[in-house]
TrEMBL record:
It comes from the Eukaryota. Residues 1-15 form the signal peptide. Coiled coil: none annotated. This is Putative. Residues 12-94, 97-178, 182-266, 269-349 form the Saposin B-type domain. Keywords: Disulfide bond, Glycoprotein, Signal. The keyword Electron transport does not apply. GO terms for cellular component: lysosome; membrane. One of its GO terms (biological process) is sphingolipid metabolic process. SUPFAM superfamilies: Saposin (SSF47862). It holds the Pfam family SapB_2.
Amino acid sequence: MIFMLFNVLAKDSLGCQVCQQTMGFVYDLLENGATKEAIEEGLQQICTIFPEGEWKQDCEKFIVTEYEKIIVILEGDFPVATLCTLMGACDYPLPPISSGCDMCMAGMIFLEDLMSVDLGLELIEFVLDYVCEIFPDTWYADCKTFINSEYEKLVPFLDNEFPPEYICTVTGACKFPFEPKEDPTCEFCIGAFDFLYDLFDFTTENGSNVIEMALDYVCYLFPEGKNRDVCTNFVDQEYDNLVHYIENEFTPKAICSLIDACDYEDPTYETECEFCRIFYQMALDLISFDATEEMIEEFLDHICDIFDSQIAVKTCRIFIDKNFEKLVDSLLQKYPTELACEMFGACTM
């Protein structure tokens, strides 16, 4: 890439100073409504740092070729230091890097800062082409390999402002913070949705389109093979339900129970009191501590789907219909099981 030539300047603060001064001059030209030719000439002043020859010619060619994108970035009011860092003329204050995960996180955090200005797909592709310039030679090749291999994922991730931890985990640069087990279905399911909830605020920052994209890639959290296949099958089969559950903030355990990734045995009971205790305790276990009235009402519309037998499902729905308002209030107040079932009249003192 043409900006590799700027790496020689990164070791010399003079190169960084010249770049920033030139960019500052170009900003002034933009503000004063200068012609394209004048602005292009101003940008090419950076190229005068180099002696006559191939490096200088490549620099000048780059300014002409990428002029429109450079101007859009300049009009986005990026600090001159950011632009010169992207060009490799100034050093980026990197944290210690000892792994591919560290490298990915550093690069994605840098790009996250750039995303504070709405770049659009074309400029996202542009900055992806040059983000590796922030790394020293020891990590530059690894960065380029990573960008090239994951390019098709990175563009939509960045366009939708996905968090760095999500990007670096689903691309395999960082390990998923969950240890696989022999029978992974339930643990993996809960772990995956815990991971998504930790990183996204689906109800306020993102719409259903982002939920759908997160689900499209969530199975990449798991190693290639049986575990990923199990995840993919669950997501494909339950896709519409999952979007709905996440939009309504169902807990990971509730989601994984409703799609049968985690098993809840049908209740064994002889009296309404016994059923009430089993059902209500299950509901307490699956509803989040800070659930709202609307979330509880929505969950009660689905909770009977956890049971397998038609008898248990029918008993569940009859019980909910009979006690709906009391159930919502009791779950909202987190009343203990014994007290709640007495309030419903299902159990006596």
